[in-house]
Description:
This protein is mainly α. It has a domain at 15-184. The chain has nine helices and two strands.
Amino acid sequence: MAKLKPVKHDEQLSLVDHLDELRSRLIFTLVAVGVIFALCFWQSARLLDIAAAPLPEQYQALTVLAPTEAFMTTVTVSAYAALIISAPMISYQIFAYVLPAFSPRERRVILPLLITIPLLFILGVVFAYFIIMPAAVNFLLSFNGDQFETQLRARDYYSFFSTTLLAGGVVFQLPVIILALVRTRVVSIQQLRKNRRYAYLIIAVVAAALPGVDPLSMIIEMVPLLLLYELSILLARGMGTPKAAVIDGSTIEER
């Protein structure tokens, strides 16, 4: 297996070398995720307590309906936890593989975005855990509470919990996506400003499609997305859009 070492922009690698590097990074990533999964499974009792913390006290004794459900639910929660914890490392391996294709000037633009991706993911997971989950479960469990006798199934709750945290980390990547689109001239800052109402509509649809199905969670999820959209416009304006210069009939991008 090839060593995982940074590749320079001007370093020449054959197709076999590229494939060998890709294989090495995939193996390293799978081994790292496997180790993290084993640690999460070892501490599964603590993980389950953390996941159940947003629930009101009377609902924290979750129900299982099959002999194998407790084990399979624990495995699933450990797998989700391993994926969330290892997400920054996975993103690093992806970008470390593709980064040598960019010139030093392009790296100066891209590197801040790459550093921002794991930070935004962690921020989204934290926001989902401390803000969205308590509001969602309190609203959903108290809705028409006099008409229903609610019993929470462990598999369903932990699936809802895990997908909510993952979705929070993913949707918080909005600034990176917008900045990338501006830098590649797919959209302009003027278009982002002019089409705000359409962007707000798309954000509302995305918030409605996230795991929290209640209107309260939808509103809570929309607020940071709207703020991130406006922040993205400010950041894009500060970074500027690459200009194109025409020299001898060829278009050259200036940074």
